């Protein structure tokens, strides 16, 4: 049972954490809370909270600074803007910003639900969005997986431990682009994809809700869109590429299609594992010469796609002189994560 002092200390700690995480990220945070991107510029314009004609200007400076001549204080920092926009007190603003950043309030701190991510139909995607520099910058800004952030919550919700892997990170807010239109921003789990030559191939992204569930983006007509997307640095780079979750050990390596399936294999078997992203990636996996014992954990697709990919890889690796074991779940339409969760 928490005392009043405990609750006060937890609120103080949570507030300090939110302030640290928000520094430098205020435009993304404010857009997640519903303030349109076009408002967040230095040019004078109507205030998103109280209107007017030219009373508002967003200066940012890393801490969300703004001016609004309709306020007694004439402006303030990002938390003051959230209070002004939502019409709430300071702690409610802190909780809202914490949610937008993918943080969960600590025990004893209640929070109000936030509006869904804003649709920004008509915003044009920047050119070169999937170039190497842009993808590497996205990766560099992301953070290691850690509870209670959404990516770690997502994995634990799938029955997995939070892995210690250099190939996985999370990001609090990532734009979702569809046909050169940004539909919103969601938290996301990022996976670094490595090419067969060891170079950077791209990023696999899993878009999530703040509570750690799969996001449900929709296009302008309301059609569901995938919550998982892959961006690569060039065409053809995925042949032989993989998410190298854990380095081979003593010449042994396991392979699977999906990231979650690969993590389940590692968790249950202790084997180092790479996720090949797709059946095509599994079939064309490129392995180091010193890997001699290979364990292929193929999906059991009703179409046979996963099994055929595993069989073709097995034949190729055997021709290369490696020892190979191919494992396929007995139940159709299942993978090894389903098996380990008692569903396959």
Automatic annotation (TrEMBL):
It comes from the Bacteria. GO terms for molecular function: nucleotidyltransferase activity. Gene3D superfamilies: Zinc finger, CHC2-type domain (3.90.580.10). GO terms for cellular component: DNA-directed RNA polymerase complex; primosome complex. CDD domains: TOPRIM_primases. InterPro entries: DNA_primase_Znf_CHC2, DUF7146, Phage_T7_Gp4_N, TOPRIM_DnaG/twinkle, TOPRIM_dom. Pfam families: DUF7146, Toprim_3, Zn_Ribbon_Prim. Residues 42-79 form the DNA primase/helicase Gp4 N-terminal Bacteriophage T7-like domain. The keyword tRNA processing does not apply. Keywords: DNA replication, DNA-directed RNA polymerase, Nucleotidyltransferase, Primosome, Transcription, Transferase. One of its GO terms (biological process) is DNA replication, synthesis of primer. This is Toprim domain-containing protein. The lineage of its organism: Bacteria, Pseudomonadati, Pseudomonadota, Betaproteobacteria, Neisseriales.
């Amino acid at each position: 049972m928490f005392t009043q002092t405990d609750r006060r200390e937890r609120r103080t700690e949570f507030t300090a954490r939110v302030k640290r995480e928000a520094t430098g990220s205020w435009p993304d945070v404010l857009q997640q809370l519903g303030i349109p991107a076009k408002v967040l510029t230095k040019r004078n314009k109507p205030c998103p909270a109280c209107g007017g004609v030219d009373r508002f200007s967003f200066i940012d400076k890393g801490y969300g600074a703004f001016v609004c001549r309709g306020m007694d204080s004439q402006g303030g920092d990002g938390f003051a803007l959230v209070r002004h926009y939502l019409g709430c007190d300071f702690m409610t603003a802190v909780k809202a910003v914490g949610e937008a950043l993918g943080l969960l309030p600590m025990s004893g701190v209640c929070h109000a639900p936030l509006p869904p991510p804003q649709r920004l139909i008509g915003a044009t995607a920047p050119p070169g969005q999937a170039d190497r520099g842009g993808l590497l910058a996205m990766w560099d800004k992301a953070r290691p997986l850690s509870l209670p952030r959404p990516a770690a919550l997502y994995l634990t919700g799938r029955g997995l431990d939070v892995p210690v892997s250099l190939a996985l990170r999370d990001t609090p807010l990532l734009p979702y682009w569809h046909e050169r239109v940004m539909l919103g921003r969601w938290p996301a789990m990022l996976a670094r994809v490595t090419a067969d030559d060891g170079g950077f191939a791209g990023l696999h992204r899993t878009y999530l809700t703040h509570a750690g569930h799969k996001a449900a983006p929709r296009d302008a007509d309301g059609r569901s869109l995938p919550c998982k997307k892959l961006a690569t640095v060039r065409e053809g780079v995925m042949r032989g590429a993989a998410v190298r979750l854990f380095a081979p050990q003593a010449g042994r390596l396991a392979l699977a299609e999906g990231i979650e399936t690969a993590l389940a294999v590692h968790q249950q078997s202790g084997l180092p594992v790479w996720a090949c992203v797709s059946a095509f990636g599994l079939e064309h996996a490129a392995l180091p010469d010193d890997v001699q014992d290979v364990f292929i954990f193929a999906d059991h697709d009703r179409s046979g796609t996963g099994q055929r990919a595993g069989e073709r890889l097995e034949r190729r690796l055997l021709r290369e002189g490696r020892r190979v074991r191919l494992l396929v779940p007995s139940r159709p339409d299942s993978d090894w994560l389903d098996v380990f969760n008692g569903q396959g």
